[in-house]
Design a protein that fits this description.
Elements (H helix, E strand, L loop, with lengths): L6 E3 L11 H56 L8 H56 L6 E9 L3 E9 L4 E7 L21 E8 L5 E8 L4 E7 L3 E7 L8 E7 L5 E6 L15 H18 L5 E9 L2 E2 L7 H20 L6 E9 L2 E8 H8 L100
Antiparallel strand pairs: 1-13, 2-3, 2-7, 3-4, 4-11, 5-6, 7-8, 8-9, 9-10, 11-12, 13-14
Helix pairs in contact: 1-2, 1-4
Length: about 475
């Protein structure tokens, strides 16, 4: 079956995109601006503390040199006996200068430490800020090309904890906690008979009084509870248990695309070791696949109910512990830049990025963002950090030609052309320009009529009276 194109470019050509890159671009730029402002504030605070510490240490060196010079100056003076007044004053001068400098040094270094503590506290706030910005971004978008996994785990016998785990090839890994609406089928622990009224599957069962042995017998799967679910790209696992809290015996059912396809693992009650995996056959396969599809469909409905960012790492390092957040913006911008450049090439308006979302039934809607809006967002970033956005190339992509449209011809001028005087031997005769001489005996052409005036006829002056009296007033045109 031919894949349905979800998005068209601005010139209505098909695109391979399956994400609203217009909304994604806005949010990536907002996130990057916030991150780069955090970076700028961190650098400014660090530079301030470094410069303050350097100035303080230089001042301390000068102050200590001053105290030493005071001591040498006092020593060069003749003060007589140490018990004399001059001797006692000299001793107090030396001691006072040293103590004063020491106190000032302690105060200055304490001020530097206070600035360092304030900078560390501000840095912690910046880390919270860029982590919250990432939570906002991931709460709205799953990055294109991300590998997505969904997990569901019963908490007690009443409800589930649901999570969405994502990872990209660009180094991002994150987990979003999902909210479960109260009206949803997974708002409480699900018993299988709510999906399939009666579901019997041939599965291993231990039987026998004297000699225990495992036999394949029909098992009532509809009486089990969904204790857990793992939906991953390579496999899906249902954890079915007898008790709603996930305890008791049951089965782990694993589905894979490759052989053997489906495996049942019988889980014993307590800490007993599970049995060997069993591969179902016959109509049991179709029954189990139908059960999986129903459960996965319910879980997929939760993907749009993202609640909070439970965990996020970048290149294996927790996002809140990164030395600098700039790399987050650089990697995100670089990951969407090829698609944004392609959108720009196919947008008919030079100052816009345009996508068209196919709605079906011969309907589609246009999504667009002006480049001026993006530039306005970026304008708040210091110039030294704006190069992060250069891969988007929003300012150097010419608009594509509008094929099939003719450029309007310039308006024809109706201004009279200047007359050229005829000079024998230098200027061609008016008869020789663009015409042949008239044949012999031909009647000469009548002179051209004067041009018809476009406005109202001019008012003619009244004829003067010939016998005296006053002149007749002019007659106005009808």
């Amino acid at each position: 079956m031919e894949a349905v194109t979800r998005y068209l470019y601005g010139d209505a050509t098909p695109s391979p995109l399956d994400t609203d890159y217009i909304a994604l671009l806005r949010d990536v730029v907002d996130f990057s601006v916030e991150v780069l402002l955090c970076e700028a504030r961190l650098k400014a605070a660090s530079l301030h503390v470094t410069q303050l510490a350097d100035r303080t240490e230089k001042d301390i060196v000068r102050a200590e040199a001053f105290a030493a010079e005071v001591g040498r100056t006092v020593d060069r003076m003749s003060v007589g006996d140490a018990e004399s007044i001059a001797g006692r004053c000299a001793a107090r001068l030396r001691q006072g200068a040293a103590e004063l400098v020491r106190a000032e040094v302690d105060t200055a270094r304490a001020a530097v430490q206070a600035e360092r503590a304030g900078a560390a506290q501000a840095e912690a706030g910046e880390r919270v800020r860029w982590t919250a910005a990432l939570e906002t971004l991931f709460g709205r978008h799953t990055l294109p090309g991300a590998t997505v996994s969904t997990s569901l785990r019963a908490e007690g016998a009443a409800r589930y904890a649901a999570q969405l785990r994502c990872s990209t090839g660009s180094g991002f890994e994150w987990t979003m906690a999902l909210a479960i609406p109260p009206s949803h089928a997974l708002a409480q622990v699900l018993r299988i008979d709510r999906l399939v009224p009666r579901l019997e599957i041939d599965a291993p069962e231990e039987a026998g009084w004297m000699h225990k042995e495992t036999k394949i017998r029909p098992q009532r799967f509809d009486r089990l509870h969904l204790a857990g679910l793992e939906v991953e790209p390579e496999a899906t696992t249902l954890k079915l248990r007898a008790s709603a809290d996930g305890a008791g015996a049951g089965f782990d059912v694993t589905f894979r695309d490759e052989a053997p396809g489906i495996q049942l693992l019988r889980v014993r009650e307590g800490s007993a070791a599970p049995d060997a995996p069993y591969t179902p056959a016959g109509d049991n396969v179709a029954k189990l696949r139908a059960l999986r599809d129903s459960v996965v469909a319910l879980a997929s409905e939760l993907a749009s109910h993202k609640k909070s960012l439970a965990r996020a790492t970048f290149d294996g390092t927790p996002v809140a512990e990164l030395d600098t957040p700039r790399a987050l913006a650089e990697r995100l911008v670089a990951s969407i830049a090829p698609a944004i450049q392609e959108i720009s090439k196919h947008s008919l308006a030079r100052g816009e990025l345009v996508l068209k979302r196919v709605l079906g039934d011969n309907h589609r809607e246009e999504l667009f963002v002006s480049k001026a809006e993006i530039d306005q967002k970026i304008a708040s970033v210091p110039h030294a950090l704006r190069q992060v956005f250069e891969p988007l190339k929003l300012g150097d992509t010419p608009a594509p030609p509008r094929t099939g449209l003719l450029a309007p011809s310039p308006p024809e001028s109706h201004a009279p052309k200047p007359m050229q005087s005829y000079v024998p031997g230098k200027t061609p005769s008016p008869r020789s320009v663009g015409s042949l001489p008239p044949p012999p005996g031909a009647r000469p052409a009548p002179p051209p009529l004067p041009p018809t005036p476009s406005g109202p006829p001019p008012i003619q002056p009244a004829p003067e009276a010939t016998t005296g009296g006053t002149a007749r007033p002019p007659r106005l045109p009808d």
